[in-house]
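tool_call: predict_structure(chain=1)
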Amino acid sequence: MARRRKPVQSSPPAAPVRSQSAFSSGLLVALTAVLLLGGIPFALGKYIELNTPDPFDGGAYAYSAQRLLTGAQLWVDEHTSAQPGTLLCNVLGIKMFGFGDVGPNIIQMLLQIGGLAMLFYTARRLFGNAAAVVSTSLAAVMLSAPVIAKYGNVKEQFMIPFSIVAACAFVLHETGSKKRWAVIAGAAAIIPFYFKATGIAIVVATGIYLIVKLLVNRRQWKSIFLTTALWTAGAALGLGFPAILYVWQGAMSRFWRTFPVILLQGIILFSALAFGVFALAYHISWSKALRALGRVHRLTWMVGGAVLVLTLIVAAVLIIRTEGALPEHDIPSYIRSLPFIKYPVMAQSWLLHRAYSIIDASGILAEGGYVGLSRQARPLSEQAPQVLRYYRAVGAVLYPALATTLIWLGHWLRRLSKTHRPDSPLHAAAGVWALWWLIDTALVWVSPHSYEQYYLPMCASGAILFGYAVWRWNRWLRRRADKMPPLAVGAATVVLLIILVFPVFAGYPKSPDTGIEYKNVQTGRPERRRGFAQSLATVQQQSAAFWQQLSDYIRNNSTPDETLYVWGWYPGVYVRAERMAPTPRAYEAEMHITPPRVLARQIRTLVSRFETDPPRFIVDSRKQHFPFDGRPPLELWPIVPANMFGNAQPRLLGNDPREIEVFERTWSQMLTQRFGQDEAERFEAMKPFRDFVMTRYRLVRQFGIHMLYEYRSTPATSTP
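tool_result:
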């Protein structure tokens, strides 16, 4: 009697999802703990952000949003540094709460609350109350930590909630098999890229997980491709969010060229091809086909092969006889034209072209641009110490996440040495979070700038991943008769976490950015900075900064229809002053890495606009921007160093042509010697702008390092 074959499962078994009462005492305790441990620091962080105006990124985003709301057309009347998602959130915030920093920060706060709520729900449902409390509290603390949260209105803060939802929804699908979670995961995962390019991390992590799962569990290919199809459908729906901006601005042609759209097309294409391969492999009886071919008489194979070879030889001879010229090209051309060669080659070329178009759209191959030009100015060897310092600064998440990754790897190494399968699909699903965290942690190396907010995404993914370790510890505690070892490990972990998170609240003795020890300005004694304590004290005691004083002066001494231009990376002046620029490009942060020819072209365009529509005020921020190697700012009206022309104190360069010539020659030589020929050429490229300001404007006042100039209708002809 034949043995009955066991049917092969087409989908993975559902995870043992915890059935917990919606209003259980455990839930109330967990919520209370999260509100105390994470909610209070989160609220303090948002209070700090709401009361700390942003002169940099947030100012740029708010300015561009206000421009669009007042009728400017994006990419025509307004060239912004904000990505579509960030710009949309700023538009919504300013539309609801007015022109300023408050609205966008409120939108960011609401998005993060939603992301943290999704994290709590997922961690509690899969790992229990303890994991939910630890992961959510740790994420809430680090996402609002002053050392990396910056001013709040930054693209990472908007991006993270969508990434959290995508990661949590996908794991809920993998452990519960509910289709809606796969759709939600796809919709949320495609959006983060429209805030920042590194937002693609969750898509990459999900893709790697599905590919590995397909290779390891080939017999579950139907369920894996179904998950991919659901995720892709959700991603298509998610594209509707950024598409709002493109539809509003009448630029849908730009939208279709964005990387997520091209990537999604590639996912659909290559997934369909892979599905076809698996369908052929598992639905065609290849053994029967091989047996049928084996029954064909050997003579038939020999005759058929000989006829085919003879036909090719005769065709090649005819080509040589009839064409006569360059037969070495004619013969390969003929062979390539044969249908059974031509069409596979065409298909291969087309697929390679599609793959290349995806890679090209990602910007990886671009040598120029923000990252490429910056990397030329700062190699990895200079960046590495800074990145490692920030790694230590966020050690409260980095070290637990790293330990969790090692625990996860150890589980799978033990699994490979045994024949039984893991007892819970949570082990496999946690791999998505581990991949996501590893990618986030690695992506901080991509940009040479390494600003503090770049470390926010790895804190979010790391906090989520740590929940897996808490779950493993909880299972160990429940299953072990002798409770002392797990309790001792748990107590040691809590103590270590307190030590690691202490600087987040009490402050850091050294700057994570520069590594320089913090010292009190008045006493010279060491002190701590950048913690919750110091940031709260600063908010309560702060007075208007110089850039704010300058902005207030402009607002009080001009009318709303008069314009302003800020040279350098201080776009917050526009927001505080409530004035607009007469040019689409209202601020500049890359003047020291832009190729000199490009900078010269930009300056000529800018000056030509100002010739016909001069702004009432021009601000020279004189901010030393990237690369931070001590190079002086590209000033609009140079300040002559002391003793250069017999002057005892620094003063503005005079309008005497001879003095200008001597200064420019001397300054150019200094730049060449210290910073290279390119920097000297950038100084030369700035000359039309310097001449325009020095002849058409007068110095109003100096606010700290910032210089404020006011337009005068009569050009200057002598030294001021």
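agent: The chain is about 65% helix and 5% strand. Proceeding to next step.
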